[in-house]
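FORM 7B: Structural annotation worksheet

SECTION A. Query
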Amino acid sequence: ALTIKKSSTTLDVCYNRINAEAYKWLSEALTINDTLTTLDLSCNKIDSKGCQLLSEAIKINNTLETLIISY
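SECTION B. Predicted structure
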């Protein structure tokens, strides 16, 4: 499982070749994290399952303000 530090407000994982399993972990972490305001996923491939997982997590997360998914 992925753990995001409670004090972290930004997570930059651009150019990390994130795979489907990592999107699952990230989505799970987002559902319980209450400090992250910015998530940068730019330049990572994301498929429809990854999009679905992230969108479900974002519905639950109350603090995320910026999601960067450019390629």
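SECTION C. Observations
The chain has two helices and three strands. The first strand starts at residue 10 and ends at 12.

SECTION D. Sign-off
Analyst initials: ____
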